[in-house]
Amino acid sequence: MKFTAAQIAGILDGTVEGNDSVEVSELSKIEEGSEGSLTFLANPKYTHFIYSTKASVTIVNNDFVATDKISTTLIRVENAYNAFSKLLEYYNQVKMNKTGIENPVFISESAKYGENLYLGAFSYIGENVRIGNNVKIYPNSYLGDNVSIGDNTVIFTGAKLYSETKVGESCVINSGVVIGADGFGFTPNEKGEYKKVPQTGNVILEDNVDVGPGTTIDRATLGSTLIKKGVKLDNQIQIAHNVTIGENTVIAAQTGVAGSTKIGKNCIIGGQVGIAGHIVIGDNVKIQAQSGIGRNVKDNETLQGSPALNYGDFNKSYVYFKNLPKIMERFNIVEKKLDNE
Fold this sequence. Notes:
This protein is an alpha/beta fold.
């Protein structure tokens, strides 16, 4: 896809300074710009690159003042960073504007779908599936019986949605995601053998939820595992059965949440955090990476460590911990003096 500087300025409500007919077909960093590429300058630390970049078009702030010769065409906007982000979003919309049903696919006779569907090859659509408008389902995806997908949702290659899963509008489900597999439910019998407990519930994703590649969300034993609107899940996260995650909470990669735990809204949870089951984590909680949470957490707490402590207490304790050899050396000297008295 090629765009002229004038077309890009029209999308961004910007002003062209230079050749408005120059064409670009790719995006680049300003220091790696090449002919035919588009870049931007937002951070003052990178200003010197604008005088040497080979990018054909550069987006800059309205107040940018050149102090040397520039060969790149400028597009002046109110905020270069926001404008470039808007352009990336537009570019993705154009790039992903696929429609139609490829072959081979399987669509059950009882399935129903809206307008502008894209369904990639080798996908499977089960009984009584309901798919909204403008949904894109990439190749090798699986939608089990009674799954529902809201408008404008994108399901990338190889995602698997088990039966009864409900997905809201404008969600993004990335490659390798598994939603609705059985929760880890087993009970020992009198011989010490583990017998599987049937998992009869489902998973519900509300609107504007993003799920990163390789993440798994288990169906509930009874009821629903619930991911509320605006939640963002990174790669390779495990969400166990009957978990609830509140609105606009974000969770980084390799975190695991055990069964029946309730996480509040607007929480920020770092990578490789382990969260025990059957606990409640309040709203606006921040948990640092590699922390272990085994207790209820009140609203607005910030935690670190394993088991996790209040963030301030952890930092104070860590000062002593890293100096523990010196502290013990002093302690031993004092102890010897006391023994000699």
